[in-house]
Sequence to fold (387 residues):
Amino acid sequence: MARPLRVGLVGAGFVARIHADAYRRLPGQAVELRAVCASRRERAEHFAEEFGVERVAVDLEELLRDEVDLVDLCVPNHLHAPFAVRAARAGKHVVVEKPLTGAFERVGDAAGLLDEALGNADRMLDAVRAAGVRLCYAENWVYAPPIQKARRLFAAAKGPIIRVEGEESHSGSHASYSRRWATAGGGSLLGKGCHPLGAALYLKRWEGEARSGKPIRPVSVVASTARLTAMPSFKPGFIQTGWVDVEDWGTMVVHFDDGSVAQITAADTVLGGIKNYLVAYGSNAVVQANINPNTAVQAYAPAPDIFGDEYITEKIETKGGWTFPSPDEDFITGYPQEIADFVRAAQEDREPLSGGALARDVVATIYGAYVSAAEGRRVDLVPFLRD
Fold:
């Protein structure tokens, strides 16, 4: 029996907790949560106690000196690239939360941001390639059961996907780093749009590989962004505000090299709980994947305190009225499946289902969308793609 994969977690916040719980769901003794570090040591200590992590490291450097096989980066976007490169050079497999990376220095220069973001992405991919380790791109939508069911249905239908429509929206992130370009690398289009975009690019890549052995890839994008909470008539109260220099709404239309299209929308300005869905229109079938909300469970309460502390669903403003409680939100959004694949990829030395090639195309498309929004034109993505 192979020894457990030793995991070091960097970060002890919201996403780190989701990942830690997914590691704990794995059968048998597949993994050992070896170490954790965080910007606040007391937070890392509490995390270690809750999830049974063996030790608390002072920082990333100390964690990398430990006997860990895989480093799971659950840190703000601006730290993804430098931390991933350091982990790869230390000989560790790397899990990087979405988005893979971004651009944080050339704010206001859309074309410069595109170059910066792809430079960061390429440094990450080059580092893992040179070290002979695996980069696992934590895009959970790829693994979400509704998306995988859509893939299987189109495999059975044998017809092309001609249009994809997808959205992730809610009432706004509570993370302070998400409000500034220097730490987030963008607003809604990056932080939320990467989810439905990643799923759309994944489905088209899969379709091309299944049909001809070559992935279908994006070739152009046109986009628009806005800060809707800055409207003079906007009334604060339920929707998060305080966005400093990033958008809270964005939409893009992506064209693929086979002539198909994807329409992707993302927002931090939508009430009613998180809205995660994707519709794939084929030549002989249509599949709608409802990740959140879905109707597996429906509940009604005449007052918001009726259900007490029982969890309903992410980002909902009230528990009163009709709601859609998720029986297992992490499962339906793909987190346990994602982590299971990453662990097997590291153990078997193979590419994960969601890896560096998909991640880089997501970065190129979104930052191409920022150029489009800034300059009011369609952006040709072909010069920015990498084989």
Observations:
- The CA atoms of residues 219 and 381 lie 5 Å apart.
- The domain at 5-139 is CATH 3.40.50.720 (Rossmann fold).
